[in-house]
Amino acid sequence: MKVSFFITCLGDIFYVNAGKAAVELLERLGCEIDFPRAQTCCGQPAYNSGYRKETIEVAKHLIETFDHSEYVVGISGSCVYMIHEYVHLFEDGSEWQKRAIDLKNKTYEFTQFIVDVLGIEDVGASYQAVATYHTSCHMTRLLGVKEAPFKLLSNVKGLKLVDLPNRQDCCGFGGTFSVKMSNISEQMVDEKVSHIQETEADLLLGADGSCLMNIGGRLTRKGIPVKVKHIAEILNSRGEA
Amino acid sequence: MPMHIGEKDFKARVSKGLQDDFMRGAVRSAQGRLQNNRANAAEELGDWEEWRTLGQQIRQHTVEHLDYYLHQLSEKVAELGGHVFFAETGEEANAYIQQVAKDKNAKKIAKSKSMVTEEISMNDALEDIGCEVIETDLGEYILQIDDHDPPSHIVAPALHKNKEQIRDVFHERLGYAKTEQPEELALFAREKLREEFLSADIGITGCNFAVAESGSFALVTNEGNARMVSTLPKTQITVMGMERIVPGWEELDIVVSLLTRAAVGQKLTSYITALTGPKQIGEADGPEEFHLVIVDNGRSRILGTEFQEALHCIRCAACINVCPVYRHVGGHAYGSIYPGPIGAVLSPLLSDYDEYKELPYASSLCGACTEVCPVKIPLHEQLIMHRRKIVEDEKKSTLSERLAMKGFEQIVQSANLYRTATKMAPFLTTPFSKNNVISKGPGPLRYWTDARDLPQPTQERFRDWFKQRSERGDSE
């Protein structure tokens, strides 16, 4: 199966290890990975700020970038959802909208792809840790991927997964929200951090680099020794702690 | 604008909210309770999603044919002997209500809960002509005796107060001498209010839903006060926002079920009162005179626009009860009698962007509101739509943001520029970094690093790793 990997802009410069792990795992599961080098950002910062015209230009660029891909797999639920939203940027019935629909139909979030397309729930991973998992809002509510990460994590040997209280609550990232309304965002991430502490887990997992960057940044600022990893890093593990 | 509450400056209101630990504690515990109740009540039905779809269809159909149903409603009310007044503005509505009060020589007016009368500041208008207005909803009553503290929630207006604060208000204003037990507080208010119902000249109610086919009005309460207000005084005035209408009783059944479950997690509230016109010949109860005031006040401007779905709202506050922003800042921070996600959508529409331009940004777009809305209003998408209007039509975004977005567009639609920018990122940020962590960011990044660390961009980007690996032929 041929898969074009979508690293996302944050993944490209901040979460290189998550990207490496995802590629290695997908290859082990039988996929042939390519990386279209023209790929950039999904355009979400502009879209969510109300800059539609600018978003359209970005969308066209990504549509062209992945034109010849069989599948596109991204490691952020939020960015994958943004790609699905491209359909609504173009006029109904237009050529660009058709291409946006094509891209939507072949673009998946990483855990969703493994469970729903490859039909695999046990990737043979093992990792010793007590972990909790942050469910990202866009991935669960908007993209609708709710179960896949839990199915995959439940089969990781040695991993003890503790429920995160109030896991449905946003971590307070919200893109430009975290900068524009930084004092409200801070209270939201603080609340998330206190729920993480309640679990007594020593590892926080998630499937969205942006949320992890937000929560992780608050954890280190407060000197709380909880490690933060992308789910791909755990699923690609073979016994190391 | 009458619907405005609190200080003018948004940031000042937010800071005040964030610093109010009592309020935040009260809101946090109320939200938790209401969220659980709602989720259980929805689950109990077994097919909640189908109910939501039905609710959406009913609201969409009704709002699309609003002219037809409003006509049908007003004909019915007139047939029954009631008076109907269409008010284009809040001022027109208030002037009509003032006139009725003058005609009746009214001194005391008992009122049940109504957001639209808050929206048009009806109480002020009546007090201006010397009437005494008594709020009879317990929450509204508490706020009224506490120096007219504004509501912070559309269903539970005094949600920002805890029971100790309520005890103190009752003690200071009314000489209450018992404990903060809710039962004792409620009993005390009940005794006080009973006198008011019996001595009021006019009763004023809001309207949860008008039923077009029969000219009836459904009032949903847990206290029974709307029933007292609408049966004891000789004259009744019902004030409704022009979209608060359903075609018939079958539709009413569905929207009321959605309302009570979504709002408070109840199958039904203790009282659901349906009133049809003034007292008819042979009837024992009801007002002798009935006035219906239908308020537009900006609603017809929303019809036919991309915001029309905002008029589908049934005022259940489920979106407010799940909103994490509301939880931390409280209702007053929104500066509008309509707070939370629906308030952030509605307030700029009913007023304008000058007054409420910050509200569409007071959301992380987490979508919790959209997920719980019982009539499927895409609330977070409406907030993005507002942002788009502010950027494109109102030109109210800042120059720095416009430049940043233009730059963003230029860079990310060009593979080359993007590659250069991401390659530069680790070098540009090195002066601000210590142990691969940026704790004091430059420029707008400082808003991020005020609260959290930022990892330093890695020297080896993912794309560099992938390229080298492919060249080495590592992949399986």
TrEMBL record, chain A:
InterPro entries: Cys_rich_dom (IPR004017), LutA (IPR022822). GO terms for cellular component: cytosol. Signal peptide: none annotated. GO terms for molecular function: oxidoreductase activity. Residues 3-83, 132-215 form the Cysteine-rich domain. One of its GO terms (biological process) is lactate metabolic process. Belongs to the LutA/YkgE family. Is involved in L-lactate degradation and allows cells to grow with lactate as the sole carbon source. This is Lactate utilization protein A. It comes from Gracilibacillus dipsosauri. The lineage of its organism: Bacteria, Bacillati, Bacillota, Bacilli, Bacillales.
From TrEMBL, chain B:
[4Fe-4S] cluster 1 binds at residues 313, 316, 319, 373. Residues 303-325 form the 4Fe-4S ferredoxin-type domain. One of its GO terms (molecular function) is metal ion binding. [4Fe-4S] cluster 2 binds at residues 323, 366, 369. It comes from the Bacteria. Pfam families: Fer4_8, LUD_dom, LutB_C. Keywords: 4Fe-4S, Electron transport, Iron, Iron-sulfur, Metal-binding, Repeat, Transport. Gene3D superfamilies: Alpha-helical ferredoxin, NagB/RpiA/CoA transferase-like. One of its GO terms (biological process) is lactate metabolic process. NCBIfam families: LutB/LldF family L-lactate oxidation iron-sulfur protein. Is involved in L-lactate degradation and allows cells to grow with lactate as the sole carbon source. Has probably a role as an electron transporter during oxidation of L-lactate. Belongs to the LutB/YkgF family. HAMAP family: LutB. This is Lactate utilization protein B.
